[in-house]
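Reviewer 2 asked us to include a model.

Predict the structure of this chain.
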Amino acid sequence: MAIISSYPSITPLLGDKVLGSNTVDSYGQPVLGNPTVQYDLSAIKTLVDQKYSQKLTSSNIGNITPGNDNTGIPVVFGAEDLTDPYVHIDAAGKVTFKGVGSYSIQQIYYGQGTNPTNVILNFKAVQDGTTQIGPTTTSRFIPSASTARLRIEINSLVDITSAETYYNFWVQNPTSGGTGTLATQVTDAAWGTDVPSAQIIITKLV
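Predicted model (structure tokens):
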């Protein structure tokens, strides 16, 4: 095989191919031996042109009280929404992924507690009712006043490999902390809408 620098340089066309190493499969799993393969430039262009597109947003304008215990509850984000072909949410907060692919999940919460106790709020995602996905996220804070709010944001990227996979998002206020809740922040009517206690935004790589 000749030295690469000896080959001529030309302007590529979408019908051309390039050589590369196949290191992961379509599910993100390592490929044994990293075989050398050909890639169509048109396929590379399609891959590079991908972007995240919002598929679902849902908010809860009302307080969510998990109870000062070690059990926790699923978060209810808002009304049922079955309009998007890729992501659905029901009235109980269950998110169902209707199509495979890469998704970005943004959870936004507003924690509240009683001054001056040490409030603990734990969060987790559970897949198909049984398996925790990703780590537990925790927030500890001492409210400066009963009207104070702590903004909590959790961002994650997930690869859904099977349609109809569903997630529930849980919140827990354990007995080791003071009484906490997820609370709406009411704004002046002339300003705009109230700040929700819980919001979820899901986008898909398309």
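Residues 103 and 204 are 4 Å apart (CA to CA). The chain has two domains: 8-48, 52-205. We have added this to the supplementary material.
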